[in-house]
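Cross-posting from the modeling subforum.

Setting up a comparison between two proteins and wanted a second pair of eyes on the formatting. Protein 1 (sequence, then structure tokens):
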Amino acid sequence: MKPKLEACGVSYSYHSLDGETPALSNISFSVSTGEFVSVVGPSGCGKSTLLSLLSGLLTPEEGTVRIDGIPIRESGASIGYMLQRDHLFEWRTIYGNVALGLEIQKKLDDTSRRDLQEMLSAYGLGGFERSRPSELSGGMRQRAALIRTLALKPDLLLLDEPFSALDYQTRLAVCDDISSIIRKTGKTAVLITHDLSEAISTADRVIVLSKRPGSVRAIFPITFSPEYDSPLKRRNAPEFPRYFNLVWEELGVSKDRA
């Protein structure tokens, strides 16, 4: 069975009048269908650049990104992208915001309207359809942003630190909430984060990048006992400290060489 996502020897540099700045070097990994992968690394190692390459927003200078075995530019796959901020429009209602992508793609029909309403109810936003974004908490806004993304039925979800704009307590709750939603929907997801606890508690595997130009230093499979079935519970699992120390030590090697 082909992986849902593959990065094969991907390299990328930024170019300016001052010269070339290598961002990523020979990145290779794959993500299986339904798998949740987290990517961590030192600041400036190219994590967000990697997401831009995986989404097709940037083209690798070397190597290939494939979805279902097909180069991303040829695949026609639907890719959902959640950014650090929710980017909800204040002049639209919550329903108007979650329906925006469907409207743009001219896919807002009776079936998609029913799906939206079901997701709003299931994810704690039932009754807030006519509210404005400023009337919602940060966590509710992020759930609205997720519904807007899931409404387009993406083959792949890319998450660029989607909880970083929230205060710590809200961040824990929203991470637990949204990660659980993504797993229940069976979506394939790649999360970029600076928070090691977040990376470990959400992921099936954690990919550790080196300092710039980023390359894959290590990939750690993450397995918890069945009773620890959410990110919040996993932070209290007996396995958690061992995983944290493994990732921290690998990041420490990268920092020492920076």
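Protein 2 (same layout):
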Amino acid sequence: MNIGGKIKELRIMKGLTQEELADRSELSKGFISQLERNITSPSIATLIDILTCLGTDLKEFFSDSADNQVVFKKTDYFEKEDTDLKNKIEWIIPNAQKNIMEPIMLTLSEGGSTYPDNPHEGEEFGYVLSGSIEIHVGNKLYKAKKGESFYFVPKYKHYITSRQGAKILWVSSPPSF
């Protein structure tokens, strides 16, 4: 296997320079250059660090087949329930945090909310599948109900609440959950 070539391919796909990858993985640019040309080999720990910076892991890196799953069933979802905030998040595309956008299904119980999220680069999009919500962006409040969607650039602290309960399809780019 051409480890260096595969690392170079992943780095380019992520839009990183050798220097940027070196900085993120706390290595020298020269080491990354030598690695990509197969002049040197990384230790397992170093390879894991590099792959983490490239949004992958050892299993995926050494896998011969690409992950071509396009349709995901409910059994593929990853769920997290927060009893304090009275919400449940379902990641409807497994491992979506490595993608540019991260679609999730958010269910807010009566009186439920999301954690406030700080300003960040990217976009937030959602579609209300049932119920109604209040979208808090900075000091502004927006309301949306079943069949309505929302979109904003998250320049301010933001979160969602629901007095009656709601189900939302929420897409965040880059992933922030």
